[in-house]
């Protein structure tokens, strides 16, 4: 297969992260299918960056399973089945691609459904008083900011709330999923898939969840958490992109 031809940079120079973003998105969206050979010299010339920047970008993409260095061939794009599906970058790039967005959200919702209610159960059994108070504070902030239409503040509190939920489970494997959860929650906002005014029921459900965890009521915590995840999935199924001011 012939070497890939990237889109030239209009700025004449890209920062390291921008190079990773551009190359990663072109792989994930299928512009460069599995087996494509990526020539570092050509990429460096066309993106107007040094070869060392391209090399570092390839190292980052290799860490996500998107490319592999092969003897006598150079850097080759991997088949999607070999990508790290849990890598936050891969998740974000798939969410950014309209052709993959629905399937990616479906997979992420299924992951949340399997993990978060169990994290809520464990948190109700293991959380300390400081974290319990912080979860209640964050839920109350969601109620307030949501009612005032401050969606950015609502999302910020939501992300921290669910991160704290995973951490409070006391299970390091659950806690390691926090970056994935960040991509789900922040991605909905970034892509304009949240209502302009958050559903008050969702906000109050978070407060119910936090209160149940703080009081050690595991069954109520599990039910409330599952309701939150399923409501979020329903919102995604019914949503169309909303403009952000």
From TrEMBL:
Designated gene of the protein: nanR_16
PANTHER family in the record: GNTR FAMILY REGULATORY PROTEIN, TRANSCRIPTIONAL REGULATOR, GNTR FAMILY
Q: Which InterPro entries match?
A: GntR_C (IPR011711), TF_FadR/GntR_C (IPR008920), Tscrpt_reg_HTH_GntR (IPR000524), WH-like_DNA-bd_sf (IPR036388), WH_DNA-bd_sf (IPR036390)
Query: Could you identify this protein by its name?
Result: Transcriptional regulator NanR
| UniProt keyword annotations, A-Z | DNA-binding, Transcription, Transcription regulation
> Which terms in the Gene Ontology molecular function aspect does this entry carry?
DNA binding; DNA-binding transcription factor activity
Q: Is the keyword DNA-binding assigned to this protein?
A: yes
Q: Which Gene3D superfamilies match?
A: GntR ligand-binding domain-like, Winged helix-like DNA-binding domain superfamily/Winged helix DNA-binding domain
Q: Which organism is it from?
A: bioreactor metagenome
Q: Which residues does the UniProt record annotate as the domain HTH gntR-type?
A: 13-80
């Amino acid at each position: 297969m012939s070497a890939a031809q990237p889109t030239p940079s209009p700025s004449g120079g890209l920062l390291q992260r921008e190079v990773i973003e551009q190359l990663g998105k072109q792989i994930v969206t299928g512009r460069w299918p599995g087996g494509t050979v990526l020539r570092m010299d050509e990429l460096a010339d066309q993106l107007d960056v040094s070869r060392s920047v391209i090399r570092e970008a390839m190292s980052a993409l290799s860490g996500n399973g998107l490319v592999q260095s092969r003897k006598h061939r150079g850097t080759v794009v991997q088949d999607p089945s070999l990508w790290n599906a849990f890598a936050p970058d891969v998740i974000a790039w798939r969410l950014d691609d309209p052709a993959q967005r629905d399937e990616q959200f479906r997979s992420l919702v299924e992951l949340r459904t399997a993990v978060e209610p169990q994290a809520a159960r464990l948190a109700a059994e293991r959380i300390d008083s400081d974290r319990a108070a912080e979860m209640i504070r964050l839920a109350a902030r969601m109620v307030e900011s949501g009612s005032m239409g401050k969606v950015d503040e609502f999302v910020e509190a939501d992300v921290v709330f669910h991160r704290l939920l995973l951490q409070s489970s006391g299970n390091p494997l659950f806690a390691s999923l926090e970056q994935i959860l960040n991509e789900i929650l922040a991605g909905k906002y970034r892509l304009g898939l949240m209502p302009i005014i958050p559903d008050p029921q969702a906000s109050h459900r978070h407060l119910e969840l936090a209160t149940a965890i703080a009081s050690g009521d595991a069954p109520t915590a599990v039910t409330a958490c599952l309701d939150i995840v399923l409501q979020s999935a329903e919102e995604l199924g019914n949503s169309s992109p909303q403009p952000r001011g």
